[in-house]
Amino acid sequence: MSDKPVTFTIDGVEITAKAGQTILQAADDAGIYIPRLCYHPSLPPGGHCRLCTVKINGRPASSCTFPADEGLVVENDTEELNDHRRRIVEMLFVEGNHYCPTCEHSGNCELQAMAYRLGLLAPTLPYFRCERELDASHKDVYVDRDRCILCGRCARASREVDHKVVFGFEGRGVHKRISVDAPHNLGETNLAAADKAAEVCPTGCIMLKRKGFAIPVGQRKYDHEPIGSEIERSRSAK
Amino acid sequence: MAEAHSTLVKEVVEQFGADRSRLMDIARALHGKLGHLSEDIIGEIADALGIHRVEVRDMVSFYAFLSRSPKGKTTIRLCNAVVERMNGADEIAQAFEEALGIRFGETTPDGAISLEYTPCMGMSDQPPSALVNGVPITGIRKADVPAIIDAIKKGGAVQSLPVAEIELNLRQSGPVIFAPMDRGAAVRRAVDMTPDEIIATMNTARLRGRGGAGFPLAMKWDFCRKAEGDAHYIICNADEGEPGTFKDRVILTEQPDLVFEGMTVAAFVIGAREGFLYLRAEYEYLLPHLEQVLARRRRLGLLGENICGREGFNFDIRIQLGAGAYICGEESALIESLEGKRGAPRDRPPFPVQKGYRNQPSSVNNVETLCCAARIMEKGAEWFSSIGTRDSTGAKLLSVSGDCERPGVYEVPYGATVATVLNMVGAEDAAAVQVGGPSGQCLAPRNFGRSISFEDIPTGGSFIVFGPQRNILESMHQFIEFFVEESCGWCVPCRVGAKHLDIIFRKILDGKGTRADYQQLEQVCMTVKTMSRCGLGQTAANPILTTMRNFPELYDALLQSDDFIPSFDLDKAIKEGCEITGRTPALEEHHV
Is pTM, for the whole model, over 0.90? Predict the structure, then answer.
């Protein structure tokens, strides 16, 4: 990671990164949107979703973890990469059980918004039809694993911001799931409703109880403009 | 009971210095004593280490050899790798099930025996094979099954059975790995040189990593040596998990001194005081032998303080056992595992030579690479580079298995063609060869003129021969199932994509695939290959991609001309309902 500003290009546009920035952070500052799901600006990168994969000097790498460096040639908004990204979002839809029409998070959901942005019309990949566990044992927060995309934001937020380690992973491969730091369920943990871990979920998996439909459908975050617009706006303003 | 367990957990945790990074050893030790690691025990371990329960569960739930539910006193892990299944593993599985009255994944009602499957355990030259509480048995015939069960019931003395005899099958030894060695010669030579001179020697020898990627050793050691850190580490990757490879097992049996010699030279070069040999759990039976060799090297002054009389050259080696995870052969996953965590690979950069074990500069080297390095110290760079080709110097150990007369380990100079090897091993009628294991490539006879080398076909050493009688694509599907099982689950394209490869490929193999399915399969392959985080995902589609390229006729024969065939099976879906109601619906007109 460079200790001084560096200049490189994304899709031919020259941008300057501050010392220590990743490619994705530098792109955000420059108003260039690289699709992402597991990344969150206040957390260390996870490298789980791979949507932010770009080609760096011709080789694929996740831009959320790759340090910006002088002279790098980065490809981002290409048909090939966007095809792969769309397929990854599709994989997430068929891996879990995502019932958008009845989900409280619809309209605020980053997974749903990403599907719209990337033009995913309907999944063509076979559904896994898995059985996932719902944990409503906590007084203020519930975890609906049907909607979990294993982005690990909750685990990182709990560790890095809340200093609690309420969430972690268990199992491997297709059996991997979000796990809680208690013998049985979330209700036994010291999670608080105000914790960062309860706020950062990109889908409707970790939700606050008794907050349903405070904002009506139709007026929600992604109802009027695609995900990433807030980043791209800063570029058009320049 | 609970209190006794609590005391036991505390004792074991203390035995490993209450060091969080020794969680693998703690978990293994307790698993050995208790048979499984219950949620209560997981909590006790967390308390004793002062870490979170979810962190212990995260690690324990990752490894195939660590169970969280009670298992039998003895666990039989039958290997269901491709070569084993080509040699009757399914029949042996059935014999075990019938003899014990249980299915795989189950335990006998008396709690005596559990049946499990395990992927390639490094015995493909003597299939079918199994691990009985860690003891390998090989060349199992159906008739052996009663005697094996009998021995287990009589107290677990499978060691004395004929099937417990491990064949060496060292078919062709060459000058590089298996030639007689002068113990200590390489280290004595090293301490008379400077680290820079040794790196220059490796550079002159043009030694490249034997794991398959072929990174120049001189460069790796140089990066590691120059990287700043509080400590430097040398790690030997003996997590030989690529299906069909077993040459490291033969090296560790026959030439362990050469491996430790290479590690000691590396330690001298990079400035390591501590080294690790990460040994796959399947090779646990080699541990006493390896510990003896280490003890002898300490006695001879080849490990410990002031090695070979060189003031201040202090170095020792610890052997770390794994717990059943193919991904730990990936160097950054190996490091995570060595730190007592789940074997999830890391994103690079930073590379392990910059930030590896405990975030310090670490050189992770293959068993065979370290042997080559030791030999180069002993015999010189010119001698080494005179073997092989310009870009691939030296020789490669091949683990040959499958349909051939003489399976086993062969030392072959780089540049040898596939056809030459097939001749050597007695497989002139081969219909296909899988070079480099499932993550490598499947070659057709028209490719047999190609050469084993970094410039043509790089390989970690697995060489699986398929005879004309084999259904090659079925074996490829088994490789895909292997990747589904072994994906760590960290990233989406590998975790989910590999499962989709399995499903779509299965549909085609079942004769229900159309051109559209083929196209979708190809697209998913490319997404998994391009977008995955580590080498496992990036190569997981290779069994399909390389057969699409080299055996298009096999796909053509399977694909249907229909525009669309549903993967949904109506008969199957309503089967249970029909059974309950005792009626079948009149749906004939809807059937495809």
Answer: yes
